Amino acid sequence: MIPEFEQLNEDERNTMFSLPIFVSVLIAAADGKVDNAEIKKAISLSSIKTMKARKALLDYYKIVNTDYEDKFKMTLANLPSDHKIREDQLILDISKVNDIFPKLDQPFAVKLYASLKDMAKHIAEASGGVFGYMSIGYEESKLVELKMIKNPGK
After folding, report:
1. Under 8 Å CB-to-CB from 148, ≥6 apart: which residues?
2. What pLDDT, on a 0 to 100 scale, did the predictor assign at position 138?
3. 107, 102, 87: which is closest to 23 by C-alpha?
4. pTM of the predicted model, to two decimals?
């Protein structure tokens, strides 16, 4: 357990630890399909964040990264196959954080919010553009800003 989540109930903690997976699946599946480049990028980012995230988030990402690939694939498999219904469910799951962020230390929430947006951007770039890099497709561009999450810094 990380100290920032001590005041949260079990459902809230589960939501917080699932956020990177929900964001990863949302962006990876934005165009209706999930390709290997997006899966690899999500897994790679999760691993990188255990070492190179903002200092306040390192312990968080160490917990999140445990069995990340399995959790990613299981989350995707357990969601509806219909693209729109799946997207709506993920947006609903991600937006639950709006009730949780106010319970957290604001600097931690702000850093996590920025980190999630960064993760979304990198996953969105994984399968677009020249040779699959440095471009965000139309479907991903509608979601990459994570507008379903209220900025905890405002």
Report:
1. 91, 94, 95, 98
2. 72
3. 87
4. 0.90
3-class DSSP assignment, residue 118 = helix
The whole-number pLDDT of residue 128 equals 59
Which regions in the chain score pLDDT beneath 70?
127-135
Domain ranges, ordered by start, for the chain: 10-141
- Residue bearing tokens 């630890």: 17
pLDDT value of residue 21: 95
Would you list the DSSP string of 21-80? HHHHHHHHTTTS---HHHHHHHHHHHHHHHHHS-GGGHHHHHHHHTTHHHHHHHHHHHS-
Token pair of 5, please?
């989540």
What is the structure's pLDDT at 79?
Answer: 93
- DSSP type of residue 139: H
Opening angle at CA 94, ends 106 and 13, nearest 5:
60
- Judged by DSSP in three states, 22 sits in helix
Tracing tokens 């951007």 back to the chain, one arrives at: 121
The H or E element spanning position 92 is: helix 83-95
CA dist 123 and 20 (Å) reads 11
Among the listed residues 3, 27, 6, the one whose alpha carbon sits nearest the alpha carbon of residue 126:
27
